[in-house]
Amino acid sequence: MSSFFLLSPGRHFLWSPDHGSDIVASISALAERLEVRCGTVSAIGALMYATLGFYDQGAHEYRTIEINRPVEIANLTGNVTIRDGRPFLHAHATLADSKGEVMGGHLIRGTVFAAEVHLRELIGAAPVRSHDPTTDLFLWRDGD
Ligand code: ZN
User: Fold this and answer.
1) Is 1 a residue whose pLDDT tops 70?
2) What's the distance, Cα to Cα, between the start and end of the chain in Å?
3) CA-to-CA dists, residue 52 to 27, 47, 92, 108, 141, angstroms
4) From ligand 1's centre to the CA of 62, what distance in Å?
5) Does domain 11-123 bear CATH number 3.80.10.10?
6) For residue 102, how far is its CA from the centre of ligand 1 (angstroms)?
7) pLDDT of 30 over the 60 cut
8) What's the rounded Cα separation, in Å, for the pair 60 and 36?
9) What is the pTM for the complete model shown?
10) Whose C-alpha in 5, 27, 51, 92 is 20 to 30 A from the C-alpha of 38?
11) How far does residue 82's CA lie from ligand 1's centre (Å)?
């Protein structure tokens, strides 16, 4: 049975991660520093390099797609929830190259050229991530 979580809006943060930082690790670290246990994330900007993932549903593992050139973050959408006791970012991105051609997928890492992040906190009985045997992914489950 699917899980349903009723949450209320909390704090909003606008933030520019450092040039050269990994946007995925940086957003997770920001959420931890601000004690955001649940929230949604969006961002735009540009990356110097990135690694996207595609989850192989048969093999239960991520295939990686390396992008070794500058790209625009046409869209980054994600959420922060607790995994292993710490805020964890799950983000997907659409990245556009110099011809405007796009690649997309699960964002594993991305080296920031410049970026603008909007983190929206959600308050209440938030989901936490735990291992799901059907998919082999860490999916949302009821918290405490
Ligand atoms: Zn994903």
Assistant:
1) no
2) 18
3) 16, 12, 8, 5, 25
4) 9
5) no
6) 17
7) yes
8) 29
9) 0.94
10) 51
11) 15
Other C-beta atoms lying within 10 Å of the C-beta of residue 41:
24
Quote the ligand 1 centre to 100 CA distance (angstroms): 23
Contact call for residues 130 and 138 (beta carbons, < 8 A): yes
pLDDT tens digits, one per residue of 65-124: 999 999 999 999 999 999 999 999 999 999 999 999 999 999 999 999 999 999 999 999
**In a 10 Å sphere around its CB, with 0-12 CB exposed, 13-18 middle and 19+ buried, how is residue 71 labelled?**
buried
**Length reported for the chain:** 144
How much distance in Å is there from the Cα of 107 to the middle of ligand 1? 7
Q: Over the range 72-107, which residues count as b (16 or more CB within 10 Å of their CB) and which as e?
A: bbeebebbbbbbeeebbbbbebbbbeeeeeeeebbb
Q: Where are the domains of the chain?
A: 11-123
**Cα(59) to centroid(ligand 1), Å:** 16
Q: What percent of the chain has pLDDT over 90?
A: 95
Give the pLDDT score at 48.
98
